[in-house]
Amino acid sequence: MEALLDFSKHIGEYNFPMVNFLLQAFLVLFVVLSIMILIYDRFIQRENQLLINYPLIGRMRYFFYALRDPMRQYFGDEKFYESFDKVKWVYDAAERKSVYASFSPSQPQKSARLSIKNANCVLNTTDVSDDFSVVFGENSKKPFKTNSVFGRSAMSDGAISPEGTRSFSKGAFLGKFPINTGEGSLTSNFLYTHKYCSKNKNYMEVYEGTFFAKTVYRVLKFVLNQAHSERVYRHMVLQRGDAESFLFDKELLVCYRVDWSAPLDAFPDEVPEDIPDIIFQMGSGLYGVRHKDGTFDEQRYQKSMKFAKMTEIKMAQGAKQTGGKLLASKVSEAIAYYRGVEAHKDLFSPNQFPFAHTLDELFDFIGRLKNLSDKPVGVKMVISSQDGFDEYANLIKERIDGGLNSYPDFITIDGGEGGSGAAPLEMMMTVGMTIAKALFLADSTLVKLGVRDKVKIIASEKVLTPDDAIVLFALGADYVAIARAFMMSAGCIRARECSGAHGRACPVGLATQDRSKRASFLVEKKAQNVSSYHAQLLSGIRNLLAIMGVDKLENLGKKNLIFKDHTGKTYMDVDQYFSEAIA
Amino acid sequence: MNLIKSYKEFSSLSEYTHSISLLLARLVVAYGFYEPAMMKWGDINSVATWFGSMGIPFPLLNAYMSATTEIVGVVFLVLGFLTRFISIPLIVVMIVAIVTVHLSNGFSAGNNGFEIPLYYMLFLLIFIAHGAGKFSIDYYLFDKKS
Are both A395 and A257 inside the same structural domain? Predict the structure, then answer.
């Protein structure tokens, strides 16, 4: 004890004059700077009215303003979704926590909504088939049979960080569900689980470090961790701007990526087994499948399709009926390499798809892609009117009746309320029908023309929980694509900084190319979460089918739905409701 | 070929020391200026008298100017704030010190020669050339966005 007292006395006798001085100096500097800013705000600048009246203090407003979006889910009122409980369900499902809720949802559900009929005598969950497969393009040479009715919706690598895309890709591989590339092309990160080996070296571009680099890697891995040592190894071995576009093999210690300049016959005939089911999306920019001058590159498309199961042509999406918008801050050198464009410049795809000045031209192009890939091809669209969709449907019937294959094997319908990382606000909520109505319209039109069995329907719009999805399946969707809930399962806190505008970046490193934000992204852990969310979603669907007394998802139909409008009037026959609602 | 590749790898590995070495150098140089600066502020008049005895014009004004440069230099170097800018007057202070005090004693540090102030000057020159590194206010103000 005495020794301790002695020791503390000893410590007390030390003084650090320089530290004291520096503390004082910082204080002085702070005060001086504050006064300078105050004088500037009050007497010099004439840009900002608020700061003239409230110099210095007024700056707090901008600070809180910046915090508003990232913090809204903690303090703000959550009105964007009908219920915060749904948001929490997604987070809990992703983290493998119990998804049971207590009491009632904290905010009431929408007053007008579709809901389901329960059976008098319900089934046990195990009585419901766990086969959730869907077959796209039954007539094509290589049809695509999924293992799930859910998949990750289109989000391009570039909009999402490389680490984010890797975790989605790994999660899709673990959870056995399809993943859509988005229009940013099929990048290395979608092939994250694809191992480098002697069999595939013909189409790989490889960099291997020397003994020195490998030793440094092993030492650092022992002292620190794998992530840090990988970063150092990459820095040593890949001295190039687009270094991020390389994958890293932890066992062989090589950096590799697909060499798109390799000849077509070097690529595998069958899609490699160690990658998830990839849906290749082609947008108006033709990223990843274009020549330097921007025209369509057939060979490159065929090479890309060696890794993908089917193609989706993006004509429009719910949040924007234009091409993709990637701000300069997100066009890194790796992204520029993938897409064949210039780095660090705003990348706005044209509004118009280059092969779709008319629907006839679009359908011809679909036929061309089908012949090139032997795989199903579909179209993503937003439906705004019966007339608009009739054009599609009639043309599909015409082509099928004519014995042609130039029609879409599936259509992806994006609801008008769908979201996006970067879209003009004026298009976000105003354009397009909501998904339930659009789905009803598309399904009944295709059934009426007798071509429904040839064309599968993919639906998407703000699906978070199984109850959101089940009504879409009942209305005729064969498959549901989900973006935001998968984002949340990968750690998104809905800070609404995805676009990278205003100089701010996604705080969790998921939707940004900012290296410092991304550096901490836990790829493997998030991949588990992504896969868990998907598993929980399927299990929820199975539970719901059981209480409806439906033993197979395909036996679900509009008969299982009811609709209650905001006055409380309930429609037992939803067809009647929709025919009244879509006038 | 392999040796060249290894050396290239070693070179890029060495880049990791860039910012930390600049930080350490800044702190040490700041400390080097701290003691003479405090001494000057402790008794500015005797400094002025000493300056006058060495034939420096406007001794009191110059005493204040060099003392101010040094003390501001200490703070700015530690913070890494306007590092390249503050290094220039500090080099001037060092040149004056070498010319008026150390030059006549030769090079050796043991003899109070110009060896040590020369090293300070070179450090300051390196700050001008390389900036303050990542661990600095400059980095957040000027470098990060671009």
Answer: no
